[in-house]
Design goal:
By secondary structure, this protein is α/β, with parallel strands linked by helices. It folds into three domains: 116 residues, 3-Layer(aba) Sandwich (D-Maltodextrin-Binding Protein, domain 2), CATH 3.40.190.10; 88 residues, 3-Layer(aba) Sandwich (D-Maltodextrin-Binding Protein, domain 2), CATH 3.40.190; 68 residues, 2-Layer Sandwich (Alpha-Beta Plaits). The chain is 27% helix and 32% strand. The strands form three sheets. A six-stranded mixed sheet has the order 2-3-1-4-11-5. Strands 8-7-9-6-10 form a five-stranded mixed sheet. The radius of gyration is 25 Å and the shape is elongated. 29% of the residues are buried.
């Protein structure tokens, strides 16, 4: 069983990532909690993202996708393995206050009210800063709490800062960076299905911004071409069946391609073919 968020900022990116990695849902009923996938040995269970760390850590499901912030908040991080940073849902957990009211966390007076869903993160942060605060637990719309008079400051996730600014808030300090992670319980981390899942997802992530380049090279220019061709290890070279020619192929970063192609042509390369990569499993 594999857990994915059933709501929030991580839900759509997580499902999209699985689809791009080649794992498709075989049903689309939004009311269903457990869904089969195109992998016969993998079912999806939809859970609240903040619940996933505890459920995975307890071994009730093999693995899941959740935010690093939820892992730290849960206190279950010692019982989990973060197998991959999925590079989605990036942001920071920050302390934010009404713009211009305080310049830093050090300026906050004791006794202020802090609205947040990150009870443990916020409590530990203010304790380490020797600040006595009153934590107000809220589950949503945290940024509106100062406007309603419920709290003086908030602790919440910030991606671009736009939502905070729209509600007249500004960040005072970052507590921790976060992004979506592939997590597994320690008892499941080496299980075949979990390792296969991690390999496939990581293969998709590794292939981003990479291209396979194929080119033909005359034998007397092969050294010149290889000298300008980057590769993960070294370029692959194969002699063609006819003529004094070689085929050379390599994986390169797409950002380098325009200038690289011109340099390869100048070095003697011919018939250059560029192919997108679906996965790159190392």
């Amino acid at each position: 069983m594999f857990a994915v968020p059933n709501k929030g900022r991580l839900m759509e990116p997580a499902l999209r990532l699985l689809e791009l990695a080649g794992i498709d849902l075989l049903a689309s009923d939004e009311r269903s909690i457990i869904l089969p996938t195109t992998w016969p040995d993998l079912n999806i269970v939809r859970l609240r993202p903040e619940d996933i760390p505890q459920i995975v850590a307890a071994g009730n499901v093999a693995a899941g996708i959740t935010g690093h912030d939820y892992v730290v908040e849960s206190g279950a991080d010692s019982d989990l393995v973060e197998l991959l940073d999925l590079k989605i849902g990036r942001g920071s957990i920050v302390v934010a206050a009404v713009k211009g009211k305080w310049r830093s966390v050090d300026d906050l007076p004791d006794g202020i009210k802090v609205a947040t869903k990150y009870i443990n993160l916020a409590s530990k942060f203010f304790e380490e800063r020797n600040k006595r605060v009153r934590i107000v637990k809220v589950s949503g719309s945290v940024e509106v709490m100062p406007m309603l008079g419920v709290a003086d400051v908030v602790v919440d996730v910030m991606a671009t800062g736009t939502t905070l600014a729209l509600h007249g808030l500004e960040p005072l300090e970052k507590i921790v960076d976060t992004s979506a992670r592939l997590v597994a319980g320690r008892a499941w981390a080496d299980h075949y299905v979990v390792r296969k899942l991690a390999a496939y997802i990581n293969g998709y992530l590794n292939a981003q911004n990479k291209r396979m380049v194929f080119l033909n090279v005359p034998a007397d220019r092969i050294a010149d071409v290889i000298s300008v061709l980057p590769a993960l290890e070294s370029p692959s070279v194969a002699r063609l069946a006819r003529g004094d020619m070689y085929e050379v192929f390599s994986v390169v970063d797409e950002d380098y391609l325009p200038d690289l192609i011109m340099r390869l042509k100048a070095a003697g390369a011919r018939d250059v073919v560029i192919v997108p990569l679906d996965k790159l499993i190392k």
